[in-house]
Amino acid sequence: MRQRKGMGTVLSAVLSLALLAGCGAQPAATNGGSGAEAGNGEQVAKIGYIGFLSGSGAAYGEAQKQGLELALTELNEANKGKLKIELITEDSGGKKESAINAANKLINQDKVVGIIGPTLSGEMFAIGPVASEAETPILGISNTAEGINDIGEYVFRNSLPESVAIPAAMDVAVKKHGIKTAAFIYAKNDDFSVSGFKTMKATAEKMGLTNLGEETFSNGDVDFAAQLTKIKAANPDALFVSALYKEGSLVVKKAREIGLNVPIIGGNGFNNPQVLEIAGHAAEGLIVATPFSPDKKDENVQNFVKKYEEKYGKKPDQFAAQAYDGMYIMAQSLLKTNKGGDRNALRDELAQLKDFNGVSGKLSFDEKRNPIGVPVVVTVKAGKFVTFE
Ligand code: 1QQ
Q: Which example biological process does GO assign this protein (predicted)?
């Protein structure tokens, strides 16, 4: 009897160990996420990332993926024995449908504890409700449109909203160039671009600028001659462009080609080095606000830039920086919950985030889970983004 009982105990211990090792994930009192206690006190947490990794905005996704992976390597090393994060990456191609499929897979099949991304605001508007319904926290690292956090209390972002960034860029540009009149052009089928345009227009009104015209295009367009010719005829003091990098850069290029030589002020879509590639010399003088500059004289920032350059052979842009911070925010919150798979515990911990010292600035969430942050205004000079003076 005694022996059988002993065997039974051993057997069940072996079985539970096998279970833990086999699945790597024993649901730990969760609401659906499959995190684990690895048996040695180490939490294992699965995080999903949904990114624009192929197609016309792939450089955004690539930068984000690199930022996330750099952070992941550092965190798993630093937190050995305490927390191991597994990252599951999904490519949405910048499409809402694909983003929804990816979110469903991550939530129901992979049982992630939280999601980072998706890249575009439009995609977040599509999957934020899916994540909220499944009580899965989702952290936007590049969603800057108005209304993102109104989706629900599981939706967070560490990306500075355009409603903060755009007025900062407009303020310095208007003062420096004595701008009195303005024209606008934006992508009408992209939530981010539409939202950015609305902010530009409202800010211009507040500043007392005269609106000399609004033109639109669709993502995927390559010919902007008609719209820009009309704008040129109206003779504005400045052109405001709300677009993703591919279309935005082509707009800038065409504007210069037809001799529309006024200051151009853009939004967050321009914060990627692809702009310099695609627009080339035409990008000179472009003005944009960003929460991150690799030139910032800050030890934390310079450490990150150095490590990123060593690993990827180039400087990080703001998409890489916010992704890097996003992974750190997730890890910090997971360490505090100490429950690898508990989605609600992670959500509640994220909501408490205060004074996180990231490479894209100090971060606290406001009551709407938006970041409080200060942008820097940059401009293109001799083929590089430099601080606007
Ligand atoms: C958004 C953005 C884009 C520029 C991300 C690539 O800010 O969609 O909100």
A: amino acid transport
| Contact 195 CB / ligand 1 (< 6 Å) | no
**CA of 68: how far to CAs of 88, 244, 327, 374, in Å?**
11, 21, 6, 22
Percent above pLDDT 70 for the chain: 90
The span from the CA of 138 to the CA of 339, in Å, is 17
Report the SS3 class of residue 32: coil
Range picked from 36-45, 253-262, 355-364 for highest mean pLDDT: 253-262
- Say which amino acid occupies 221: D
Give the domains, in start order, of the chain with CATH numbers.
29-160+300-373 (3.40.50.2300), 163-290 (3.40.50.2300)
Q: Is the CB of 120 under 6 A from ligand 1?
A: yes
Are 321 and 292 in contact by the 8 Å Cβ rule? The answer is: yes
269 Cα to the center of ligand 1, angstroms: 6
Cα 190 to ligand 1 centre (Å): 9
Residues whose CB falls within 8 Å of the CB of residue 74, separated by 6 or more in sequence, listed in order: 307
Q: How far is the CA of 58 from the centre of ligand 1 (A)?
A: 12
What single-letter amino acid sits at 98? S
Overall average pLDDT of the 188-203 stretch: 98
Percent of the chain with pLDDT over 90: 82
Q: Which residues contact 361 (CB under 8 A, 6 or more apart)?
A: 291, 292, 373, 374
